[in-house]
Write a structure and sequence with these properties.
The protein is mainly α and about 140 residues long. It is about 70% helix and about 0% strand. It has eight helices and no strands. About 30% of the residues are buried.
């Protein structure tokens, strides 16, 4: 994975960042290295990495956090848009900035929309094993 990161592969940087953040994959937990790799992944355009940086900044520098969320939301990242909406509701994001993010998010989603993607997403939804469960799943007979 280090070699892939050295080649500039954003997903490798993101994976290394997460490994350092949690002390996984045989690496010792190291916040400085985690942030370094997440930043490189975000700079490379990986929206999930940008979102992770926003989450990391929330308790430390909310203004920076919402900048990260806005960048990812405007590029079509759904979870970041939810954070921007929360920021707007809590007064951290101004109305015109929130509206701009909504328009940009919708445009980004429309730009990549296609029948083939919808078919692939449906196939993936039907055939992929569930990896996320809620307490309700155990009571609803799923």
């Amino acid at each position: 994975m280090n070699q892939a990161a050295e080649l500039g592969l954003e997903m490798a940087h993101h994976s290394l960042g997460m490994a350092y953040a949690h002390g996984d994959e045989g690496v010792e937990k190291n916040e400085k290295k985690a942030l370094y790799h997440c930043r490189l992944a975000a700079i490379g355009g990986l929206l999930e990495a940008r979102h992770v940086l926003g989450q990391w900044c929330l308790q430390r520098d909310p203004n920076m956090a919402y900048k990260h969320f806005l960048i990812a939301a405007e590029a079509g990242h759904d979870e970041s848009l939810k954070e921007v909406k929360t920021g707007y509701a809590e007064g951290h994001v101004e109305k015109d900035v929130f509206e701009k993010a909504l328009r940009a998010h919708k445009a980004a989603k429309n730009e990549v929309k296609s029948e083939q993607r919808d078919i692939a997403a449906e196939w993936h939804r039907r055939h992929s094993p569930r990896t996320h469960f809620t307490v309700g799943d155990f009571y609803s007979g799923r």
